[in-house]
Amino acid sequence: MAKFKKKSGGGTPAISTASLPDIVFMLLFFFMVTTVMREVTLLVENTKPNATEIKKLERKSLVTYIYVGKPKQQYIPQVGSEPRVQLNDAFARVDEIQQYVITEREAINEAERPLMTVSIKADEDVKMGLITDIKQELRKANSLKINYSTRKGEVYGDE
Amino acid sequence: MKFRKRHLPEINTGSMADIAFLLLIFFLVTTTIDVDAGIQRKLPPIEEGPVPIIHQRNVLTILINANGKLMVEDQEVPLKELHEATLRFLDNNRDQSCSYCEGPGHHDLFDNPQKAVISLQSDRHTTYQLYVAVQNELNRAYQSLRNREAERLYGRKFEELDSSRQKKVSELFPKKISEAEPFKL
Question: Is residue B164 assigned to a domain?
């Protein structure tokens, strides 16, 4: 005959926390998979313009970024307040872009070089003159696939 | 004979949650759910061949000036109407060679979508924001025409087609946007 021991004390049983690590791990994996580490520190203001008809950039390894915008407040004493180009972690002149793009292209596997895309991440207040100069440099470097980086949103905002 | 299970001391997993939380918080902080998206464009190569002769009628000139005003074929057009204006031009079927166009076949507008070229000219002082907006509107015009054709031919939206069909539909309305150097003042 089986014996059942009666539990001492009649309080509510403690909730098992054994599955807590599983839940947390699940969240953890989600974030690990979706995370994109910021590869550069931004030295320029970067509010991207709005657009609706956008395409996602795939194959991050084939994308080269060019940041354009006004320098951030703390860099204004050194470089002035005129919009500047940022390549990697430093300010650059427009005529350095050609070399930069060529160097980046060299780093890509030869078969995939034609797929390289240059993503222009420019601030919405930048003037077209500078953008056109950049585009001209990209044409010189023969890097013709470009992407104007935008946010998703309506374009008629300020009318 | 009875085997008695040897009793191994259990590892305490109570701190597992703490470790996982720590990692979780690290990833939460460093993560930027920043989908990289934007407007795709292809630049023309720098070595220029002979300039093809294009009839003026087949060129839709869009000017963007420094004050944020748009001009389409000598007429000021607000940004909101650019999409409509572009559609009117693209869908025109003047020489009756485009069986799928629905436009009225107006005399001054494009011969057919195959010949259509959009010339986009901006000023050096035009803001990038407006430029992107205009590019966006042009994309929207092409996209709505392509959607219409995709719907007609395959009964689906353009994005839902596979890439070979997408290509076919795109060829019905090829995107030819020419950008002149911005004029200097």
Answer: no
* pLDDT per residue as tens digits for the range B28-70: 887 766 667 888 888 877 776 666 777 777 778 888 888 878 8
Q: Where do the H-state alpha helices sit in A10-96? A: 20-34, 76-79
Structural domains in chain B (count)? 1
Chain B residues touching residue A28 (CB < 8 angstroms): 20, 23-24, 27
Minimum-distance CB partner of A132 among B13, B41, B181: B181
pLDDT tens for chain A, residues 1 to 159: 566 665 556 678 888 777 888 888 888 888 878 776 666 778 888 888 888 888 888 777 788 888 888 888 888 888 888 888 888 888 888 888 888 888 888 888 888 888 888 888 888 888 888 888 888 888 888 888 888 888 887 777 644
CA distance B149 to chain A (A): 18
Q: Classify residue B147: in a domain, yes or no.
A: no
Q: CA distances (Å), B177 to each of A15, A76, B70, B138, in order?
A: 65, 37, 16, 9
Q: Range of B85's domain?
A: 56-141+175-179
Contact A28 B24 (CB under 8 A): yes
Q: What does the domain layout of chain A look like in residue ranges?
A: 50-152
- On chain A, the residues whose CB falls within 8 A of the CB of B31 are 31, 34-36
Domain assignment present for B60 = yes
The answer as to whether B39 is a domain residue is: no
CATH class of the structural domain A50-152:
alpha beta
Tell me the CATH number at B100.
3.30.420
Give A127's contacts in chain B (Cβ within 8 Å): 124-128
CB contact under 8 A, B39 and A152: no
Name residue, tokens 């539990």: A7
Nearest by CB to B27, from A21, A31, A126: name it: A31
Q: How far is CA A22 from CA A18, A130, B19, B21, B152, in A?
A: 8, 52, 12, 11, 50
Contact present, B170 and B116 (Cβ < 8 Å):
no
- Minimal Cα–Cα distance from A149 to chain B, Å? 4
Contact indicator for B86, B144 with CB cutoff of 8 Å: no
From the list B13, B21, B36, the residue facing A57 with the nearest CB is: B36
